[in-house]
Amino acid sequence: MNSEPVNAYTIYYWEFQCGELSVHVASSHIGAVMVKLYFEKENSFMTELISSAPNAELIEDRTHNEGLIGIIEAYLKGNNPAINVPWDINVTPFMYNVYRSACAIPYGETKTYKDVAFMAGAPKGARAVGQALKKNPLVILIPCHRVVAVNGLGGFNAGINMKRYLLNLEQNRMLF
């Protein structure tokens, strides 16, 4: 968790295709700021990035994002890369605990919102966990797709089809 506001510096962003997905990444000199996945080319990424850091200088730059791009590409090709990228996101302490708890879920496995609530120290906070994960700006880096409802998949900010896609990818079942 960073105490310095995201909007006080330069953010480098890049868009690329990986298989059938359009991938958007953004990072600062501190760490990853945003990672988004889409099935189609999407223009909302820049709007969301500008909204999250209205005073930042935004520079389109692949080179600054090479490490992040490499991790995302490896992941989307069905590998389980070590994800040790620092985050540069402004979140509440509760959200931070939820995100760290989601990161503790092993590749290819899932936990329920209730499980993550316990992991994050808020045993009655399953709905709050869902709301925190809905705001996750770092898809894949913070694997919120691994958190499911007791009776189904639950929600996902990139859409339920993307959640299903990522879970199938991790379980080596590319059935859509």
Please identify the top-level CATH class of the largest domain. Answer: Mainly Alpha
Helix percentage: 25-40%
Class by SSE composition: alpha/beta
Distance between the termini: 35 Å
Strand content: 15-25%
Low-confidence stretches: none
Major sheet size, sense and barrel closure: 4 strands, mixed
- Backbone shape: globular
Walk me through what this model shows:
It is globular, with a radius of gyration of 16 Å. It has two domains: 6-76, 2-Layer Sandwich (Double Stranded RNA Binding Domain); 93-170, Winged helix-like DNA-binding domain superfamily/Winged helix DNA-binding domain (Arc Repressor Mutant, subunit A), CATH 1.10.10.10. Strands 3-2-1-4 form a four-stranded mixed β-sheet. A two-stranded parallel sheet has the order 5-6. It contains six helices and six strands. By secondary structure, it is an alpha/beta fold. Helices cover 33% and strands 18% of the residues. The longest helix has 11 residues, at 66-76. It has helices at 44-52, 66-76, 93-103, 113-119, 126-134, 160-170, and strands at 10-18, 21-27, 32-38, 57-60, 111-112, 147-148.
What is the compact description of this entry?
By secondary structure, this protein is an alpha/beta fold. The chain has six helices and six strands; from the N terminus they run βββαβααβααβα.
